[in-house]
Amino acid sequence: MNDLARLKDEIAVIGVGNTRYGNFPDVDEYGLAAQAFRNAVADCGIDKDRIDGLLVCRIPYYARMGEVLGLNPRWSLTLPPHGRMSGMGIIEAATAIAAGHATHVALLYANIGRSRRVNYGGDESPGTWDPWGFTSPGAAHAMMFRRHMELYGTTTRQLAEVSVSVRYHACLNPDAVMRDPITIEDHESARFITAPLRLLDYCLINDGAVCMILTTKERARDFRKPPVLISGFGAQETFSPSAIANFDMDFWHPALRVAGEQAYGMAGVKHGDVDALMCYDNFSPTILFGLEGLGFCPQGEAGRFVEGGALSLGGRLPTNTDGGHLSNSYMQGWALNVEAVRQLRGECGARQVPDCEVVQYVQATPCTRSIIYTRG
Amino acid sequence: MSYDKPLPRIDPLNKPFWDAARQNRLVVQHCPACGDVRFPPSPVCPKCLDPNQDWSEVSGRGTLESWVDFHRAYWSGYADGLPYRVCLVRLEEGPLLVSNLVGPSDAARLGAAVEVVFEAATEAVTLPKFTLSPDGAGEPT
Fold first, then answer.
1. Which of A54, A311, A348, B54 is the most exposed place for a label (fewest CB within 10 A)?
2. Closest by alpha carbon to A10, among A219, A262, A164, A314?
3. Could A147 and B65 be called an inter-chain contact, meaning their C-beta atoms sit closer than 8 Å?
């Protein structure tokens, strides 16, 4: 019994846009989001006054955002800055359209963390374990990866494969922030931040904004670009132990399995049909967790799965073809969903996955989500 | 010498934990109604929602579930003491604690037996930390 399955292929992404990514101290979230919005509007050719739904994430005040864009939508929703809201937001917008709350929804995300020197740890984000010096999402992922090493024999050289493949894609993406190729040896000699994780296991922190515009499959035909369909999605939260933020003893494996099975079942897609995977990579281990939880390999075998460039374009499962958070841009999942759309449109130039028909997004986080996109 | 690392934000809910630590006792929150135990404390029992919670002393023994070595000082007080080792411990009684693994810890491995030690940070605050148990052997989990 799964009523959500009725929404298979009902909602389409019609427009996507982003700013440049980098360090922009002279512009705020509204300015960046407005640029992304202009680009998404131009991408699909929509009259912006047809937009009657607005979802904002990591933007201080939804009403100011609406005012800046000259929008008074029928439906709006604000999501906090946490790095897991993209998957949630896209699914919420799709269901809002299906329910009739709005016909054309713009989703906006902006981040000014680079120019404002956000640290993601210490007094900036107080937690229960500060007296023991335990802080930051990176440390939580280091704690998980150490467990993975101990339980399954996964090595840091295997982890390096993730960073190397994702960086390779960034080198093919003219818009990516980090475009110098790296090797496994570069990864292994990078400085530790929270051992066993090193600098090259950490995502970037950069400024930028992303916009997506969604509507129904029927209305999608009215616009400039071929629609990309939301064919399936799935969700499962894991809220304990939330005192240890961004951490799960079992690598979110149970939640990923539930969310993945729902998404595959709804879309009528199998693992072998997935042409590219977009996996939330705030830290490199999350890609291993995502591969295992979705069932691309048995639990504990992702280290072996990724060896030999399996995640690179031309490999077994091209993953984060834009360069991900590790090397393209830290847009907290939003840019990965935009990349899914561009791959399915065939707009990706040197990094284009040939004959790309099915792209899956996944976020291995306390709010696990997966979305399967297909060519309309 | 003043202590320049972060100190706990002691509030009415967690005060019994820190009061006990000052007496070199490790306690976790306990539900008299259903027996659930946990840390950090919760305003109601997450299992049965009973609002009347108390505290029970635990053995201080547990197993090492993971560890991380911090090479970055997120607080300036750590700058001269890098790297430092943070551990994840499953207490015999069930709750998970994050703490520091102190003393010789080259033999750290998943499932290793650990036990609590108490380090006074200030006159008001004592931190429960963990060491590898002398006999070393724990059952891998």
1. B54
2. A219
3. yes
How many domains are there within chain A?
1
Please indicate, yes or no, if residue A134 is contained in any of the structural domains. no
Interface residue A126 vs chain B (CB under 8 A):
yes
Question: What is the per-residue pLDDT across A215-262, written as a single tens digit (0 to 9) for each?
Answer: 999 999 999 999 999 999 999 999 999 999 999 999 999 999 999 999
- Domains along the sequence of chain B with CATH: 9-57 (no CATH), 59-141 (2.40.50.840)
Helix (H, G, I), strand (E, B) or coil at A329: coil
Do the chains contact at B75 and A134, CB–CB below 8 Å? Answer: no
Q: Which of B70, B99, B110 sits opposite A150 (nearest CB)?
A: B110
pTM here? 0.97
- Token pair 């993971």 is at which residue? B66
Predicted ipTM? 0.96
Q: What CATH code is carried by the domain that includes residue A275? A: 3.40.47.10
A60 occurs within a structural domain: yes
Q: Which residues pair with A13 in a beta bridge?
A: A214, A228
Q: Give pLDDT tens digits for A31-43.
A: 999 999 999 999 9
- Give the integer Cα–Cα distance in Å for A31 and A37: 10
Q: Which of residues 219-248 of A touch B (CB under 8 A)?
A: 240-241, 243-244
Q: In chain B, what residues touch A152 (CB-CB under 8 Å)?
A: none
Kindly state the helix (H) or strand (E) to which residue A255 belongs, with its residue range. helix A253-267
Does A304 lie at the interface with B, CB-CB under 8 angstroms? Answer: no
